[in-house]
Amino acid sequence: MNASSTDRIERQILLKAPRAKVWHALTDAESFGQWFGVKFQGQRFVPGEVTQGAITYPGFEHLLMRVVVRELQPQRLFSFNWHPYAVDPAVDYSTEEPTLVEFTLEEVEGGTLLRTVESGFDKVPAARREEAFRMNSGGWDEQIGNIERYVS
């Protein structure tokens, strides 16, 4: 299921993997980085703290991914804030309102239902809102496939 409004992007997939395995892939920073395309070596996701690493995705290696972890509800919810499509190293995105990314897990017959929601695009500055939404929408399509391959 792929749903979206102008403020949020939603993706949902049934992963044929146990919830504990999916949870580890999401919340162990190094595992997350392997499927997401970021080097988070030696770092951990801790609520209230910043985690950052070099993006390894071709064409974006000059960028850092920086997230502020919000919630870690074991085996159920992992969330963080970030600045969507913050790809211009000459721009200071820190004054912008970040979006919220939420990963929700549910044990279902046949595996784990993973729901991903990124919300808050209506607060992204108008000059870059449409492109950030479009690029992240396509990005989530790709990342859902990446985690599916990673946990299979």
TrEMBL record:
SUPFAM superfamilies associated with the record: Bet v1-like
InterPro entries: ASHA1/2-like_C, START-like_dom_sf
Gene3D superfamilies according to UniProt: 3.30.530.20
Organism ancestry: Bacteria, Pseudomonadati, Pseudomonadota, Gammaproteobacteria, Lysobacterales
Signal sequence bounds: none
Protein name stated in the entry: Activator of Hsp90 ATPase homologue 1/2-like C-terminal domain-containing protein
Family affiliation: Belongs to the AHA1 family.
Pfam families reported in the protein's UniProt record: AHSA1 (PF08327)
Domain Activator of Hsp90 ATPase homologue 1/2-like C-terminal positions: 16-151
The species this protein was found in: Lysobacter capsici AZ78
